[in-house]
Amino acid sequence: MKITTRTDPNKASLIRAIKQAGVQNDANIWKRLSKELSSANRRRVAINLSHINRVSSPDEVIVIPGKILGAGVLKHKLSIAAESFSESAKEKILSVGGQCLTFEELIKTNPKGTNVRLMK
């Protein structure tokens, strides 16, 4: 029989913590993020910086339930929380004055999830 639950205990505890933050703070953004992270790995997103640059505005807070890739140029300052970042993406985000955050850091700073945008 095939295993249908998360096999990575760190990822499973992260998903539980995000879901719990959504319930405690009545924040639908965290509930939705936990649902996206619970999906199959083959459905996980990988987004390039060029796409983020096109669809975002300066000083926005963005959450991505996947990986950020470094293709393209980021022209404005953003705070981005993602599952993982490529090295080139991290360098480009930090070079324009942006922030690379983990989900836990973002939930601690903004538990209600106000003015946070989920991209997928």
Blueprint of the fold:
Layout: H1 9-24, H2 28-38, E1 45-48, H3 49-55, E2 60-69, E3 78-85, H4 87-95, E4 99-101, H5 103-109, E5 116-118
Parallel strand pairs: 1-2, 2-3, 2-5, 3-4
Question: Which characteristics define this entry?
Answer:
5 helices; Ribosomal Protein L15, Chain: K, domain 2; globular; 42% helix; 120 residues; alpha/beta; five-stranded parallel beta sheet; 5 strands
Estimate the strand proportion. Answer: 15-25%
CATH topology: Ribosomal Protein L15, Chain: K, domain 2
Q: Order of SSEs, N→C?
A: HHEHEEHEHE
Task: Characterize the biggest β-sheet.
Answer: 5 strands, parallel
Through-space gap between termini: 31 Å
CATH class category label: Alpha Beta
Give me the count of strands.
5
**If you compute it from the alpha carbons, what radius of gyration comes out, rounded to the nearest whole angstrom?**
14 Å
The protein's oligomeric status is: single chain
Domain count: the total is 1
- In the CATH classification, which architecture applies? Ribosomal Protein L15, Chain: K, domain 2
Stretches with pLDDT under 50, minimum 5 residues: none
Instruction: Give the overall shape.
Output: globular
Q: What portion of residues is helical?
A: 40-55%
Structural class: alpha/beta
Helix tally equals 5
Mean pLDDT: 92
Description of the molecule:
By secondary structure, the protein is α/β, with parallel strands linked by helices. The protein has a single domain, classed as Ribosomal Protein L15, Chain: K, domain 2. Helix content is 42%, strand content 23%. Strands 1, 2, 3, 4 and 5 form a five-stranded parallel beta sheet that branches.
